[in-house]
Q: What sequence folds into this?
C-alpha cells in the first residue's frame, strides 16, 4: 500500500527518467505559488533559497533568532561527494554502495543512488558561493577520509564544515530575502500542520516573543526541522533541537518511519555531572589520526580511573587498540555503530578509563610524532581547543577521553521518491525525513543529504505536485485553521494550568534516562517492554504533576519546553515500540538477542527487509511496511574485518 | 562553591529593567556558565518565579546564539570563548558576578539577557553573499584558490555573528562583524565581481541600522570569541574607499 513512487528504469537512469517526465510549473506561473518552509538549517535554507530563485513565493519560519543559528552550524567534520579527485577509485556507484552497506541494507536504493549522483554538484555550488573549503598547495580542494569508506571523499573546512556550508546557504537565502522572494519569520515556533481536503494547507505557529498564535497558508509545506536525538535529553544536538514539527505532522497523518534507528556517535566528551545540559562531539575526522585504546588489564584501568597514573605512562604493550585488533582492515575507521558498541563492550567488561568507568582513549601521540604538531593543529586545531576548554586537559599531551553519545536520528517522517510524506503537499527534507541512511548513517553524509534535498531534489519534485494545485484557495479563514488554532490554545492553557511539582526539564531528564538505558546503544525485549511501561507512567505523571510558570501571551521558555517534552514523551514510546518490533540487529539498532558469536549485529533479511512506517490512530500506532528490494547490491553480512 | 549573581531583569522591550540579586549554591568548576544559569532557572521555576531569559543553542561556541556581558566583559573573563564555553572554573567561591545583556541601540532588549540582533541579518541581506543561483556553479576545481588565501578567508568566515564586538565597543560599532564578511568574500575569486557593490551596500545597511563609527581601539577584537582580527577593518576601509572612487 505504501507507494514510494520510484521511477521506472535502471537504477542509473531513474533520476534522469524522472527529470524528463516530471510536470513542471512554467516560469510565469511560479509567482502564483506560496510555499511554506519550516527550518533554516542546511536543508531548509538551501530549499528556501533555491525555490525563491526559481520564482516561488516562500515563507520561511524558524524558532531561531537568525537562520544562521540552526543546528547544522555545529557540524564539524565534513561533507562527502563522489568527485574522485584523488584517483583512488571513487565513483557515484561506490558512494552509493558505501551508503547502502553502511546503512546495513535498510535504505531505499533509488534514493541513495540519486543522492550519490547529485553529491558532486553540491560541492560545486558551495565553492561558487565562497565556502572556504580546505585546499592543497596547488589551490585544489583537499579531502579526508571518514568512517565506513576506503577512499578520501570528504570535503571540509577545518572542524567547521557545517558552519561554512550553512553560511553559504544562508547567503543564498539572504539574497532571496533581499529580492523579496522569501519572507522570513524568525522566533516563530511551528506548532501544527493544517490539513484540509486531505492536503497540507499551512501551519500554525507561535511568535516566541509575544506569544501570539499565527496562521500561515501555502500550496505546500516543507518541514526541514532536523532530527529528534534530544528525546534522550543528553545528545550532541543543539539544546533546542526537538521533534515537535515532525511529531505534530505524524499526529495529523504523516507516517513516521523507522523511529528506533538512532545513531550513537563513538567520539564524544563523557558526561561530567548531573547538571550536564548537552554532550559535545569530537568529530569523527579525528579517527583519521587518533588511535582508540583501553588498557589490557583491569588493574591498569582501575588506576587510570582513580587518577593514580596518567595514560601517557601506560606502555605500548599494556595497551589494547581494540578497534585495530578486532577490525584489522578498517581499524579505527570502522562505522560509528561498530565503534560505539566496541567501546561499550570494553567499558562493560571493566576496562573503561573515565572516573565513571565510561570512557576510552583517543590518542594522537603517534600522529603527532609522524606528522608534527603543526600538521595536527592545522587539521584539528579548533577541536583540540574545544576539548581543552571543556575538560581542562591538553590533547596534544594527553589522549582524549571519549565515550559514545546520541548524535543523529536516521528515522523520521516517511517520504516517497518526491520527498513527500503521506500527507499530500507536505514534504520533509534533511534529518527530518528517514530517507537515505538506512539503519546507520555514514559520517559526512548528513550534510550531503540535507543539501541534496534542498538544492537539487525538492525544487524539482515539488513542481510536480504544485502544477496540479494552482487554483487552490489559500484563505486561513477555514474551519481547519480554526480548529488547529483553538486546539493549540487549549493545549497551552492546559499546560500552564497544571500546578504540579516537576519542571519540564525534570520530566525530560527522566525520559532521557529511560531512553538511554533501554532504547540506546543496545536493546532487548525485556528492557523495551519495561521502557514502554515507564514512559507511560511518566506521561501520566506529566498530565498531573507538571510545573510551569508565566502566561501564554509572553516570552515563555518554560511553556516552550513543556510543549517539546509533551511530544518527546509520545515519540519515546513509539521508538521503543519500533525497536521491540524489529527482532534483528542492524546498524545502530542492536538487539542483544540477535548477534553473531563474536558479538556483531545479526540481520534477518528474510523477515525485516522493510521500512517500518507508523500511522497515528486514536487506538495506537498502526504499522505499515515498505518492503525494500535490492536490484543493484546484494545484502551481505557487513564486515569491516 | 557559592556564587552571587546580579542579573539584569527586564520584562520586555517597553518596560524598565533593573538588577536583581540571586545566589546559587553547589556550583561546580566543570559546569559551564549557562549550566549554572540552568540550575538557577530550575530553582526559580520551583519557587514559581519567572526564569531568567537568555539565548543559547549549540552550547559549543559555534551558533552565536549566546552572549552575556559578565563582569563588564562580553562573553566573560576567558579569552576566545563564547559565553556557553565559559566554565565556572574561571570563578571562585564567594564571587559576586554582574550579568547583563549586550547593550547597543541596534540590539534592543527583548527580555532580560536576550536581545534582538536581526540588524546583523539585514546587513548581510543587503549584499553579504556571492550572487550565484543553484545549478549555475562551475566544476569546483575550476576555481583555484591558493591555500593561504583560502585559509585567510576561512579565518574571516569563522565569525559566528554573536555581536560581542558591538557590545564591547563604546560606539556600538559593527565594523568587525561587517569587515569579517567583506574580507571573507574579497579574498576569494568568487567574491571578486561584486566586491565594490558589496562594500557599499553593506556599509550603507550598517549605518541605517544605527551602529556607531569605529573607535579604532580594538576592544572588539579583544572580546571576539573567534579572534577575528581588526586587520579586516582596515581591509573594509580600503574596499569601501576603492568602491567610492570608482
Ligand atoms: C555536533 C554535530 C556534528 C555533526 N557533524 C556532521 C558532519 O561533520 N558531517 C555531516 O554530514 N553531518 C554532521 N552532523 C549531522 C548534521 O549536522 C545534521 O544532520 C544536519 O545538519 C541536519 O540539518 P537539517 O537542515 O536537517 O536540520 P537542522 O540544522 O537541525 O535545522 C532545523 C531547523 O528547523 C527549525 N525548526 C525545527 N523545529 C521547528 C519548529 N517547530 N518551528 C520552527 N522552526 C523549527 C530550526 O530553527 C532550524 O532552523 C553533525 C551533527 C552534530 C550534532
Ligand atoms: S566578529 Fe567576533 S564578536 Fe563580532 S559577531 Fe563575529 S564572532 Fe562575534
Ligand atoms: S550557544 Fe551557540 S555559541 Fe554559545
A:
Amino acid at each position: 500500500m505504501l507507494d514510494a513512487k520510484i521511477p521506472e528504469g535502471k537504477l542509473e537512469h531513474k533520476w534522469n527518467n524522472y527529470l524528463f517526465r516530471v510536470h513542471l510549473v512554467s516560469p510565469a506561473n511560479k509567482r502564483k505559488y506560496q510555499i511554506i518552509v519550516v527550518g533554516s538549517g542546511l536543508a531548509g535554507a538551501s530549499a528556501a533559497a533555491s525555490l525563491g530563485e526559481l520564482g516561488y513565493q516562500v515563507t520561511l519560519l524558524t524558532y531561531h533568532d537568525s537562520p544562521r543559528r540552526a543546528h547544522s552550524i555545529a557540524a564539524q567534520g565534513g561533507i562527502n561527494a563522489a568527485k574522485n579527485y584523488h584517483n583512488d577509485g571513487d565513483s557515484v556507484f561506490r558512494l552509493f554502495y558505501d551508503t547502502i552497506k553502511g546503512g546495513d541494507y535498510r535504505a531505499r536504493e533509488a534514493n541513495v543512488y540519486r543522492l550519490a549522483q547529485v553529491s558532486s554538484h553540491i560541492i560545486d555550488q558551495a565553492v561558487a558561493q565562497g565556502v572556504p573549503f580546505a585546499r592543497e598547495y596547488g589551490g585544489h580542494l583537499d579531502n579526508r577520509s571518514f568512517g565506513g569508506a576506503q577512499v578520501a571523499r570528504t570535503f571540509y573546512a577545518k572542524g567547521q564544515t557545517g558552519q561554512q556550508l550553512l553560511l553559504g546557504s544562508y547567503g543564498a537565502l539572504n539574497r532571496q530575502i533581499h529580492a523579496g522572494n522569501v519572507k522570513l519569520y524568525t522566533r516563530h515556533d511551528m506548532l501544527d500542520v493544517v490539513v484540509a481536503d486531505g492536503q497540507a494547507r499551512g501551519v500554525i505557529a507561535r511568535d516566541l516573543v509575544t506569544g501570539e498564535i499565527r496562521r500561515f497558508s501555502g500550496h505546500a509545506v516543507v518541514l526541514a526541522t532536523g532530527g529528534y536525538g534530544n528525546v534522550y535529553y543528553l545528545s550532541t544536538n543543539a539544546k533546542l533541537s526537538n521533534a515537535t514539527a515532525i511529531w505534530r505532522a505524524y499526529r495529523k497523518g504523516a507516517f513516521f518511519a523507522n523511529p528506533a534507528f538512532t545513531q550513537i556517535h563513538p567520539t564524544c566528551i563523557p558526561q561530567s555531572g548531573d547538571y550536564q545540559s548537552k554532550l559535545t562531539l569530537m568529530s569523527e575526522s579525528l579517527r583519521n589520526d587518533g588511535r582508540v585504546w583501553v588498557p589490557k588489564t583491569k588493574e591498569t584501568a582501575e588506576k587510570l580511573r582513580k587518577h593514580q597514573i596518567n595514560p601517557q605512562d601506560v606502555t605500548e604493550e599494556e595497551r589494547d587498540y581494540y578497534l585495530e585488533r578486532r577490525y584489522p582492515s578498517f581499524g579505527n575507521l570502522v562505522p560509528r555503530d561498530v565503534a560505539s558498541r566496541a567501546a561499550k563492550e570494553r567499558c562493560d567488561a571493566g576496562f573503561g578509563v573515565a572516573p565513571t568507568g565510561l570512557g576510552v582513549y583517543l590518542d594522537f601521540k603517534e600522529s603527532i610524532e609522524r606528522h608534527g604538531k603543526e600538521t595536527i593543529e592545522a587539521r584539528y586545531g579548533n577541536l583540540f581547543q574545544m576539548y581543552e576548554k571543556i575538560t581542562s586537559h591538553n590533547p596534544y599531551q594527553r589522549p582524549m577521553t571519549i565515550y559514545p553519545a546520541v548524535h543523529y536520528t536516521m528515522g523520521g517522517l516517511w517520504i516517497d521518491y518526491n520527498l513527500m510524506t503521506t500527507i499530500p503537499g507536505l514534504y520533509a527534507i534533511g534529518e527530518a525525513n528517514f530517507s537515505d541512511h538506512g539503519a546507520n548513517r555514514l559520517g559526512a553524509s548528513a550534510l550531503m543529504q540535507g543539501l541534496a534535498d534542498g538544492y537539487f531534489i525538492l525544487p524539482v519534485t515539488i513542481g510536480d505536485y504544485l502544477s496540479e494545485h494552482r487554483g487552490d484557495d489559500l484563505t486561513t479563514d477555514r474551519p481547519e485553521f480554526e480548529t488547529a488554532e483553538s486546539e493549540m490554545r487549549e493545549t497551552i492553557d492546559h499546560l500552564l494550568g497544571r500546578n504540579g511539582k516537576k519542571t519540564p526539564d525534570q520530566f525530560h531528564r527522566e525520559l532521557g534516562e529511560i531512553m538511554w538505558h533501554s532504547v540506546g546503544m543496545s536493546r532487548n525485549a525485556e528492557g523495551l517492554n519495561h521502557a514502554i511501561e515507564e514512559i507511560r507512567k511518566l506521561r501520566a505523571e506529566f498530565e498531573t504533576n507538571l510545573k510551569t510558570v508565566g502566561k501564554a501571551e509572553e516570552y515563555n521558555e518554560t511553556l516552550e519546553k513543556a510543549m517539546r517534552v509533551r511530544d518527546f514523551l509520545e515519540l519515546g514510546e513509539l521508538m521503543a515500540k519500533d525497536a521491540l518490533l524489529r527482532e534483528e540487529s542492524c546498524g545502530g539498532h542492536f538487539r542483544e538477542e540477535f548477534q553473531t558469536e563474536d558479538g556483531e549485529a545479526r540481520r534477518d533479511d528474510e523477515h525485516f527487509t522493510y521500512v517500518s512506517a507508523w500511522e497515528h490512530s486514536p487506538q495506537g500506532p498502526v504499522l505499515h511496511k515498505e518492503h525494500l528490494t535490492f536490484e543493484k547490491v546484494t545484502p551481505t553480512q557487513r564486515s569491516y574485518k | 562553591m557559592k556564587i552571587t549573581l546580579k542579573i539584569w531583569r527586564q520584562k520586555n522591550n517597553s518596560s524598565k529593567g533593573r538588577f536583581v540579586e540571586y545566589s546559587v549554591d553547589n556550583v561546580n568548576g566543570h559546569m559551564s556558565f549557562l549550566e549554572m544559569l540552568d540550575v538557577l532557572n530550575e530553582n526559580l521555576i520551583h519557587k514559581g518565579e519567572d526564569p531568567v531569559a537568555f539565548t543559547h543553542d549549540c552550547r559549543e561556541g559555534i551558533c552565536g546564539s549566546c552572549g552575556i556581558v559578565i563582569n563588564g566583559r562580553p562573553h566573560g573573563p576567558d579569552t576566545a570563548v563564547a559565553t556557553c564555553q565559559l566554565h565556572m572554573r574561571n570563578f571562585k567561591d564567594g564571587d559576586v558576578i554582574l550579568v547583563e545583556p549586550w547593550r547597543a541601540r541596534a540590539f534592543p532588549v527583548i527580555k532580560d539577557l536576550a536581545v534582538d540582533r536581526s540588524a546583523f541579518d539585514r546587513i548581510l541581506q543587503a549584499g553579504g553573499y556571492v550572487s550565484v543561483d543553484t545549478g549555475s556553479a562551475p566544476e569546483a576545481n575550476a576555481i583555484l584558490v591558493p591555500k593561504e588565501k583560502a585559509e585567510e578567508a576561512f579565518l574571516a568566515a569563522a565569525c559566528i555573528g554573536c555581536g560581542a564586538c558591538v557590545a564591547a565597543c563604546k560606539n556600538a560599532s559593527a565594523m568587525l562583524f561587517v569587515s569579517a564578511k567583506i574580507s571573507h568574500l574579497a579574498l576569494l575569486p568568487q567574491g571578486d565581481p561584486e566586491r565594490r557593490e558589496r562594500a557599499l551596500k553593506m556599509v550603507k545597511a550598517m549605518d541605517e541600522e544605527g551602529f556607531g563609527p569605529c573607535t579604532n581601539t580594538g576592544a572588539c577584537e579583544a572580546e571576539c570569541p573567534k579572534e577575528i582580527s581588526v586587520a579586516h577593518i582596515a581591509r573594509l576601509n580600503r574596499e569601501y574607499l576603492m568602491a567610492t572612487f570608482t
